[in-house]
Amino acid sequence: MPQPRHPARLRFPLFALFLLLGWQAAAACNPAPPRPPILQGYTYDAMAAGALLRDADAVVSARLVSRIDLQLAPGTAPAGDTASYVFEVIEGWQAERPQRLVLAGVWVDCELPLERGQVFLLYLAGERLLHAVPAEALSFEFDLLGDPAWFYDAGGRLVRLEEE
């Protein structure tokens, strides 16, 4: 007489599948993302930040909320797996951005320490990430940027700060 399957025995294949998908998704960031010319062969410093600020149409302070991993059907994309990173925008300079910002993994460097809840300063050119700086590594940026032009309040409403 065959023995009934125990639910605990089904967990292993699901766990193995999760690990397999997680392993594939780990490759979704870009080990060599496109870099702005100012950062090619140069270190990020105050001069580079000034050039990035001129090239960016927006700079935002944002918290990483999640990563969306997409496994595309074979043959639909050359990369196979892609990821998008979802950020919650806190405040910004220059052009306004929506409170939920989604960046494609092709622009995100694999060396960037991405942990949920971590805050970054993001230099953006349209939908493209030019450079990201973890909040704990910020030193001169806020002196360069000055006061934010806008922010999102606790209710999620956009508040524009008027210059006096």
Q: How would you describe the shape?
A: globular
Radius of gyration: 20 Å
> Beta-sheet strand percentage?
25-35%
Question: So how many helices?
Answer: 3
CATH structural architecture: Beta Barrel
Kindly state the mean pLDDT as a whole number? 80
Give the SSE string: HHEEEEEHEE
Helical fraction: 10-25%
Number of E strands = 7
Task: Summarize, please.
This protein is α+β, with helices and mostly antiparallel strands. Helices cover 21% and strands 32% of the residues.
Explain how this protein is built.
- This protein has one domain (37-160): OB fold (Dihydrolipoamide Acetyltransferase, E2P) (Beta Barrel), CATH 2.40.50.
- 21% of the residues lie in helices and 32% in strands.
- It contains three helices and seven strands; from the N terminus they run ααβββββαββ.
- It has helices at residues 7-26, 46-55, 141-145; strands at residues 58-71, 81-94, 100-104, 119-125, 128-134, 150-152, 158-160.
- Strands 1, 2, 3, 4, 5, 6 and 7 form a seven-stranded antiparallel sheet that branches.
- The radius of gyration is 20 Å and the shape is globular.
- The N and C termini lie far apart (84 Å).
